[in-house]
């Protein structure tokens, strides 16, 4: 059995279309999906500790971890080609905060150190050409619910999370949006522990590729699934569909090294997330990212 960790958001839809259409069974594999609400930082820990075999999460979190020397797993493919739109939020009653400039030097809530919510704060600081340190503290709050609570209670001053996941909390006036920021790289990747059977991994990747193809050809069904299973309105799901592009060449095309690896690592170095020499970072990435992975 393959234990697959994922974030239970709209991006997971092709994974479950593949399950509903029996693509995993057709490929002869048994898959157990493990939802991880805490995000990519938690996915990294589960992989590292051997509690899951495969994880699907944000590019920047995995690239940063591999570049720092974690060799428990490899990046084996790009799952989502389009960039991710991160909404920058504060509490609805925080009248002193009206823009992203207002949080420079203040506390940015994150799910975990090393998570996407943590890394993108550095990208935000770079966009403002701010002086380092960009922010005074990074309260670690584990999950989205705690992050929302923190900006209303004052534990943190702002946080970043995917826009469409956050939007309902703007609509119900729990949060206030003060900006947004896009990843400068393709947003989601598939990773696998090094000891995972290569044939099973190839079968999983091929099945997900079929799930992506099904998703691309059944948008109305995707909207219904997202609205019924993932706590999004169908209106928001339709808007999201116009922004997302899954990797239709998953398992059959070479990974775009410059966009996925070089660009991400460069920004992480500039932001100070990666501090080792470029030579050491590049060596670790060459070992930990499968540029030419092909599903068997």
Automatic annotation (TrEMBL):
Domain of life, per lineage? Eukaryota
One Pfam family in the UniProt entry: PBP2_Ca3427_like
Q: Name one GO cellular component term.
A: periplasmic space
Point out the coiled-coil segments of this chain.
Answer: none
Q: Cellular location of this protein? A: Periplasm
Gene3D superfamilies, per the entry: Periplasmic binding protein-like II (3.40.190.10)
Q: What is this protein called?
A: Ca3427-like PBP 2 domain-containing protein
Recorded source organism is Meyerozyma guilliermondii (strain ATCC 6260 / CBS 566 / DSM 6381 / JCM 1539 / NBRC 10279 / NRRL Y-324)
Species classification = Eukaryota, Fungi, Dikarya, Ascomycota, Saccharomycotina
């Amino acid at each position: 059995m393959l234990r697959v960790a994922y974030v239970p958001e709209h991006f997971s839809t092709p994974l479950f279309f593949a399950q509903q259409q029996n693509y995993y069974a057709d490929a002869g594999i048994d898959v157990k999906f493990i939802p991880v609400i805490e995000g990519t930082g938690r996915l990294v820990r589960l992989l590292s500790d051997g509690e899951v075999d495969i994880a699907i999460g944000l590019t920047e979190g995995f690239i940063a971890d591999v570049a720092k020397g974690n060799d428990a797993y490899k990046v084996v493919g790009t799952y989502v080609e389009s960039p991710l739109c991160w909404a920058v939020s504060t509490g609805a009653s925080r009248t002193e905060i009206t823009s992203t400039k207002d949080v420079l030097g203040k506390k940015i809530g994150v799910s975990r150190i090393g998570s996407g919510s943590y890394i993108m704060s550095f990208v935000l600081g770079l966009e403002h050409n701010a002086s380092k340190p960009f922010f005074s503290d990074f309260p670690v709050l584990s999950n989205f619910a705690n992050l929302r609570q923190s900006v209303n209670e004052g534990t943190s001053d702002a946080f970043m999370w995917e826009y469409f996941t956050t939007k309902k909390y703007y609509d119900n006036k729990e949060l206030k949006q003060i900006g947004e920021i896009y990843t400068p790289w393709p947003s989601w990747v598939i990773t696998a522990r090094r000891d995972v059977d290569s044939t099973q991994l190839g079968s999983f990747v091929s099945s997900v590729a079929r799930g992506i193809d099904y998703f691309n050809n059944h948008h109305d069904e995707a909207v219904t699934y997202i609205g019924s299973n993932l706590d999004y309105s169908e209106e928001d799901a339709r808007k999201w569909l116009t922004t997302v592009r899954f990797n239709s060449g998953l398992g059959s095309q070479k990974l775009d090294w410059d966009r996925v690896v070089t660009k991400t690592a460069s920004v992480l170095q500039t932001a100070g997330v990666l501090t080792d020499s470029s030579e050491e970072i590049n060596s670790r990435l060459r070992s930990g990212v499968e540029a030419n992975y092909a599903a068997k």
